[in-house]
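Moderator note: this is an archived Q&A kept for reference. The question asked for a predicted structure of one protein chain; the sequence and the answer are reproduced below.
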Amino acid sequence: MGDGVAQIERGYATIAVPGCAARADRVLFLGGSFDPVHMGHVGLALSAARAWGGDEAWVVFVPAARSPHKDREPTADRHRLEMLRLALRGRRRWWIWDQELRDAGLNPGEPSYWADTWAIAKQTFGGGDGRAFLIGTDQALSMHRWRRSNEFWRDALVMRRGDGSDDDFAGALRGTGAWSEADIGHWMSRVVDVPVMDVSSTAIREGLSARENARGEGPVRQAVDGLDPGVFRYIAERGLYRDG
């Protein structure tokens, strides 16, 4: 697939970026709903950043406003932002970039496309080899179907969580029929291995809902695997995710 010239299709806000993050040699971005944020989001992003850019690399978390890939309406922005802050407290070299959330008000009813977000990121943080966004192997295998993916796919960093060898991943990329051998070579150069963390936001929401339903009224009191304790307390105190 060829490289395209980014054209931002949505209205967007101008957000000031901390100078220490903007000047960093390596900045890794992780987009997602974070609904709720779990230990896998934080741990995998920080591990991938160290593997790619060393201990000085920054991680920028990008909460999605309204993903075109998900039917479920996300939890209110203020809750997802606060849960992210709680999950990241005490850690170094991170920032929450709420670009998509702020832009949503300028584009009512429209989904957020990563093509636009990444184009804005490159304007805001600068481009080059020191800027990348983190995805899983499953997202890499579907990226040819992402809107305007020719503009940004080369900037992806792929985390492999014990799910196959180089040959497996290269073969799966060939199987999509979307990539040349040169493209596949580039994909293979962008793989980093990270620890296996068996946790998902969907499973956590289901677990929270099941425990709430078992109790009837009142907040869930028993912790859920994969959630930071501070995030769990925040959820329980506000009665979030009662309906899964």
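Archived answer notes: The chain has a mean pLDDT of 89.
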